[in-house]
Amino acid sequence: MQQHATPTWPDGLMRRTMQAKGAFAAVALTLAMVLASALILAVPALAQSRTLKMQSTWPASLTLQDNFRFFADRVDKLTGGALKIEVNAAGQIVPPFEILDATHKKVIDGGHGISYYWTGKSPAATLFSNTPAGVVGMDHMDFMGWLYEGGGLDLWWEFYTKELKLNVIAFPILPASPQALGWFKRPIKSVEDFKGMKCRQTGIVGELYKRMGQQTVNMAGGEIVPSAERGVIDCAEWVGGIEDLRLGLPQVWKYHYTPGMHESASIGELIINKDVWDSLPKQQQEVIRSATTETFFRWWVQWQKQNADAIEEMQTKHGTQILNPPREVLIEFLKTWDAYAKEQSAANPFFKRVFDSQKAYAAKVIPARRFMFPPYSFLANYYFPPVTK
Q: Which long-range contacts (CB under 8 A, 24 or more apart) does 146-151 make?
């Protein structure tokens, strides 16, 4: 049989082929090492997901707590799960009105409430909640403008860190207003009718109504309806709309007056321990800034729809008479607040500094907006004329 010789490769071709294979193997090995390194690094990154433990001053059932939950959800999604907020309701970790001190001491990483709760530490606290009367007539947008365009946020941080010497910073987050004047067992037609009534009020607002002649009583929200049923109080202020409906106030009293000037544009806060804040990466700090602003607007528009539904239910199901307060009652409240603010400005330099800053900003913006913006009632009355009996 004829034998066939085994083919041979030229030496140069063989060398080039082996070199190519070696180079390919080197590249493949390098890619494998890079991929492995990336996977190794990814595991600690996932493991480093951080949770901040926070608590509000609100019961879990309130729509105000929904605001807190919305914020936590946005932080989680905007950071891809790298930063999470543990949302706790009032009392789950500390008593509701201890969240400020608890945040300072890092018992919790932060809290969700409203600054006028801290007027016992300084009357200036009320100014950072835009309460009462929008301080000098500011609505929500004016107050947010003062915070972010008029130096107000810097003053707020200074108030906590230097004036109160607390390791705490804050952001606006909760526009739970405008709020109603309240619920009354009988009609109110004048300031004289207002006087002498025993009414549930809180904080600095309670002090102002007391000066107007009310007998004010401070009590938790859960005590209002039982106290009303027993005749312990003649009237009460809670929130208005959906919150008042859930509390059961339409089942006790039929006269509901709104709006009030005490919380015409009140705004709640998110507080954070400053060491915790400083420890966050800059990107996560920006997420918190953005999430508080988004929560402010997204929750607010949802809340207004809930209030509209609640008002309809109050009237159709419970026979509530929803009335506007007498103008003289509202004016008397504004005068009482102006006198109080003047007293505090004379006695408290920091109060004066903040109050003057707010007045200067409002004096520029409010007249301009009044000139540019049509009155809300003008278009509302044209398209939806008030029902007259």
A: 146/357, 146/358, 146/361, 146/362, 147/172, 149/361, 150/357, 150/358, 150/360, 150/361, 151/357
pLDDT tens digits along 49-62: 999 999 999 989 99
Report how far apart, in Å, the C-alpha atoms of 338 and of each of 118, 133, 155, 190, 332 are: 20, 9, 21, 20, 10
Spatial distance between the Cα atoms of 259 and 281, rounded to a whole number of angstroms: 43
313-327 average pLDDT score: 96
| Tokens of residue 191, six digits | 């300031």
Report the half-sphere exposure of 191 (CA within 13 A, side-chain side): 15
Domain segments of the chain as ranges: 48-177+266-303
127 within 8 A of 354, measured Cβ to Cβ: yes
Map the chain to HEC letters: CCCCCCCCCCHHHHHHHHHHHHHHHHHHHHHHHHHHHHHHHHHHHHHCCEEEEEEECCCCCCHHHHHHHHHHHHHHHHCCCCEEEEEECCCCCCCHHHHHHHHHCCCCCEEEECHHHHCCCCHHHHHHHCCCCHHHHCCHHHHHHHHHHCCHHHHHHHHHHHHCCCCEEEEEEECCCCCCCEEECCCCCCHHHHCCCEEECCHHHHHHHHHCCCEEECCCHHHHHHHHHCCCCCEECCCCHHHHHHHCHHHCCCEEECCCCCCCCCCEEEEEEHHHHHHCCHHHHHHHHHHHHHHHHHHHHHHHHHHHHHHHHHHHHHCCEEECCCHHHHHHHHHHHHHHHHHHHHHCHHHHHHHHHHHHHHHHHHHHHHHHCCCHHHHHHHHCCCCCC
Domain 48-177+266-303 bears CATH identifier 3.40.190.170: yes
Q: Give residue-wise pLDDT tens across range 183-242.
A: 999 999 999 998 889 999 988 999 999 999 999 998 878 889 999 999 999 999 999 999
